[in-house]
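hey so i finally got around to running the thing on that chain from the lab meeting. sorry it took forever, my laptop kept dying and i had to restart like 3 times. anyway pasting the input first so we r on the same page abt which one it is
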Amino acid sequence: MMGTEVAVTGLGLVTPAGIGVAANWAAVCAGEPTAAWDAAVSQLSCRVPGFDADELLGPRRALRLDRFAQFALVAAGEAIADAGLDPETWDGARVGVVLGCADGGPGTVEAQHRVYLGEGAHRVSPLLLPMQLPNMLAGQVAMQFGARGPNLVVATACASGATAVGVACDLLALDRCDLVLAGGSEAMLTPLAVTGFARMGALSERFGEPHRASRPFDADRDGFVAGEGAGVLVLERSADARARGATAHARVLGHGASADAHHITKPEPRGRGGEAAVLAALADAGAGPCEVSHVNAHGTSTPANDRAEAVMLARTLPHRPLVTSTKGVTGHLLGAAGAVEAVYAVLSTENRIVPPTANLERRDPEIDLDVATAATPVRIELALSNSFGFGGQNAVLAIAPA
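ok and heres what got predicted. didnt touch it at all, straight out
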């Protein structure tokens, strides 16, 4: 990042593990799985519990927003407050927004398509496009908080949230802005979208034991459980954070990105693309592989992903840092996963605790990693947060103590 040190001064979360950072951290450290049978999509899912958009955003505003934008606004509000910032007084022209999303608002699309077929074109909402377009994720956050700087939505499938954090760091390094609200949001728990994942054979079919369905690195894993949510980080140059007296949770020292160029859904079996992203993140951070203390793995609970990532990590980080996948608790939050897991990596670094990999009962013998099965105290000097997506898109963040 051209020698620019980036501080994480604010955190916000809306996930199946809870609304707010405190609730999330408690649930993730306790290893409490959230998967359940979801009759609305006829599959297992991990939904955000108790999310009342009318109460959190006001009924008029909530009505005009797809669920993916609602999540982002709530998470961004928490992150801004946590950073001790006041949008009424900041220089909005120097505040950027970079958020990741894989799909935009499929809930709105599917609902309005039903209206179109059942009631006719004249009954389709004029808000269809403003509610469902992916770019509106960043646009709505900017309008809510008066952020008039660079405004972007990035889409790298399930790496989107992590990619957004990397792009935000580059904007800070290039002095395009002084603050960036970075992260990701996703709300794809709709009948058509979830059916698409099911038809690919990507989802767990452990219907009789929903809580045990998402089980990264376990020998009996059979697919991921789709989830929803958002994670937002406030990023600023460390020098600027110190100048305003802000307290940093951690620092983002580097990021790396790559492409497998291999297959539309399957990872390259040896994890060569993931390795390139890891090494790029470490080079950007000015660090070597032996300095990594912890990895928040992509760890989706699919046979192919977990095996490829494990092979890559064992080869790239042979000193065996402690690995976890928080997807055992939250399920796979798709385009938001990288942002949410970056927040968890920040919290691990700050609190010196690696959360457990929920439901890991019998490690796959082909996976030669040290994987946390209980909340484990670890002094973390450098953590990696891995995110890999369909299309072979990879993003890795390197995170260090403040």
